[in-house]
Amino acid sequence: MPKPMIKPARLPFFLLYCLLFPCIFSYAQTTLVHSADDVHFRTGLELMDKQNYAAAQKAFQDYIALGNNDLKTVEAQYYIALSALNLSNSDAEPMIERFIATNPNHPKALMAYYELGNFYFNQKKYDKAIDYFGKVETSRLTAEQRTEVEFRLAYSYFSKQQFAQAGELFNTLKRNQHKYTYAASYYAGYIEFRDGKYDEALLDLKKATNSEEYRPLVPYMIANVYYKQKRYDEMIAYVEEISNDKTIRNREEIALLTGEAYFRKGNYEKAVTYLDQSVSGGRTKPAADVQYRLAYAQYKTKDFAGAVENFKPVASATRDTLSQYASYYLGLSYLQNGNKPFALTAFDAARKAKFSKDLQEEAAFYHAKLSYEQGNSANAVATLKDFLKMYPDSKHENEINELLGEAYLNSNNYTEAIAHLESIKRRTPRIDAAYQRVTYNRGVELFNNERFPEAIAMFAKSLQTPQDVDLKIAASFWSGEAYSAARQFPEAINQYAAVFREPKSTATEYSLKSRYGIGYAYYNNKEYTKALEHFREYINRSDANANKQNYDDALLRLADSYYVTKNYNDAIRYYDQAISRNTVDKDYAYFQKGVVLGLANRPEEAKSSFDQVANQYPKSGYVDNAYFQKAELDFENGAYAAAITGFSKLIDQKPNSPVVPFALLKRAAAYGNMKNYDKAIADYKQIIDKHTTHKTSTNALLGLQESLSNASRGEEFDAYLAKYKQSNPQNDAVENIEFEAAKSLYFAEKYQKAIESFSNYLKQYPNNGLSNDARFYIAESYYRLNDIPNARINYQSIIRENISQFVNRSIGRMADIELAANNYQAAAGYYTIVLSTARNKREQFNAWTGLMDAHYGQAKYDSVLYFAEQIITTGNATLSAQNKALLYKGKVAFNQGNYDKAIDEFLKTLNSAQDENGAEAQYLMAEAMFRQKQFKQSLEVLFELNKTFAAYEKWRGKGFLLIADNYVALEEMFQAKATLNSIIENSPDKEIVSAAREKLKSIESMPQKATETEEEEDTLEEEDTSN
Q1: H helix runs in 391-488, sequence order
Q2: How far is 870 from 529, CA to CA, in rounded Å?
Q3: Between 3.90.1150.10, 2.40.37.10, 1.25.40.10, 1.10.10.10, what CATH number should domain 887-996 receive?
Q4: Residue with the larger pLDDT of the pair 391 and 380
Q5: What are phi and psi of 170, to 5 degrees?
Q6: Residue range 492-727, CATH number
Q7: Cα–Cα–Cα angle for 97, 101, 107, nearest 5°?
Q8: What percent of the chain has pLDDT over 90?
Q9: 553 near 877, Cβ under 8 Å?
Q10: Per-residue pLDDT, 923
Q11: 1-14+121-214, which class in CATH?
């Protein structure tokens, strides 16, 4: 308890000089012999009276110098010593001691110790006061002086905390009636209270209330006595009795005691009233245990918002039992308020504290349970497993096991979940249902990552425990998709057919999707008659506008199927439908229509359709083929000059097209038919020189032989024949066998050995036609070994030679390498070439995606948006490419400071993206909100990030750092520190941990409010953990 604020200055004592000089004034009034010698003595007394001690001392010294050996000379010596004392001269005490020794029987000597004691008492030098008061012969004092000495001696002992000596004197003084009676009772009561003698203290303190001086101070002490005696009802009654007395001091402390009394009685409503009055009325921050009890009382009275505010500072204090309890009840209070994320942090702090094992277990239980309820299944699994490991005999064991099963079901860590479920020997229907779901989810994840064989295996496992029919249908469909992607079309057909065998499937989306998928599987397996049946059924059952992309694609595949089955009229009809719908593949429809019209012997219409490709879509991948087919029609109709013009147009405008060797061969034949043998020979030679290993080279050799003969230049043939043979060894030739052996090492993923084997091949056969192919496989092997410098050298060599069939793939690889090295300008150049030579949609989308990345790295945001829009609107993009394009639109807006637009784009991304693009979008959306000072909204988005994208550690770690920043902005320092400590303890990312340490250091260096240093002497009594 606080010490009583009793100061000697408030006691009704005489002034120091009055106490020291009781005889001066009477002496001054005595009739004196007014001789000249008396002048100095009388002057000294007058100066003493005026407290001019230095001058008085001089006057008395002048009197002594007269040499009068009389009583006044002795008194003058005494006054000189007394003046020295009042002047605080160092020789004062020795002077007085000499005077006493020299004049032991002099009246002044008898009073000297009394006066010294009073002097030092008034100077608050209680050690010296005790010493001199102890030497006073009280028998020579008056009764009033004797009482004064006893009280002052007692108070001096009290001030030096020598309570036993003080108590004895106060107890003697309080028995008699005098001016110190009530003061002595007050101090005696205090000492008795301190010694635990509460009954005696109560009597003395009540007696002290008779004094106006002590009446305002005593109520606090009396209330404290009742409290210490646990006489709570009497204390409360006493407080109510004195409540209207406005003079009472320590009202906040009395309110505190009253609140504590109500708290001990379990009357939490009243406790809140008084404890809150004490806390809010205090001048300093309340003691932690007081604030804890206020918070606990608020919790008990369901004032959970108030409880939160008062538990927080206690929970944030130095780690001890009290802070652990505060963290636990803070968590419960947050739960009652529906704030589960904050509750999770509070329980985490409580479970990590090790002061109360029982409380630690309860907090760990709530933490694990909340981790699951918050949807953070990955964390929940680890937390639930840790709980069972730490508390194997817990009363919560059954519930934790149930939650663990559910957490595994919902976890993104499917591999661990599957291993756990497969380890269970006794499989219940509920476990089988969980296994069906988690293997299905893992299959979808593998499918999205293009790991199709593994996805197929997972879907097969899911289908082994078909507890949920809808999930069985979905697994069959996705298994079919995976088989198709792996080009295992018969197996894909079986899986799609399994969807049709389920009666319930007709009511699901997978029935129509499977129709589309099985059509493609038959189509790719070259079973076109069956394919067209399914494509036709798909079109008949589909809403043409609801799923435009797939509908338009099915139109084209149906047309293709009719074309291959030679039903040209139906093929043309469906190509025309595709054209009229402005499909994204309209260029393909025009091209295919031209091919079919040619086969239907409608050449002019066919050429017109081919012209539409080149005129409307000059950048289309079908332009070179359109040129070729149009020229081919002229060739077949004997219009060789027109054919030569057409083939030349292709060769000149599309020199890197893979169709060029065919165009050269056809143009050479046209020249030959026109008997222009020299030009025919030039084209044949060009094929053998530049496309030595191309499949046209054999026909080119035959055509060359004939044209040279017709031109009478047969002697030139042998050199080209030798060149052809060198580049095209027979299949059983040694060099061909060695090449295939090296390839087998590459495809077996034995890349280092493949490099050695291909390198040896190049040393032995440097001019072989397969040498450039060998160099490509060397480059690929280095690339897969992550030896980028050597990979780069070989890719660049292939690109410079420009004769390998792998030139375009090498350019694509160089684009990827430069992008990974942040050489964005170089990467953009390569991707532009890839785009210009793209032969299919996949190559086109890869180029667009690469260009989008490269331009973003250069902050060329207009170009980023252009290619993103191309990917989004063109259709048929992979889900990953589509998600990335949507994400980049948001990132551009974010970097330009347009946060509202960025958030809109990130939301669009999240509508489809469950991959890393989605994780990044979720994080950046939260950061955009943080920058807009929408801290609570930012937190909600980050909680969802932790729930939905827990598998992506990079974004999860950055998300936790941003959570801490939001908490700081909201002045939720307890939550901020707990979050950062959790990162430091749990994150595997060193950079994230380092950032967390810096943020935590910054928070801890923030200025704190002043705290109350005086604490109650009673110790904390822990409440039970029941709710």
Answers
A1: 397-410, 414-422, 429-448, 452-464, 469-485
A2: 34
A3: 1.25.40.10
A4: 391
A5: -60, -40
A6: 1.25.40.10
A7: 90
A8: 61
A9: no
A10: 96
A11: mainly alpha
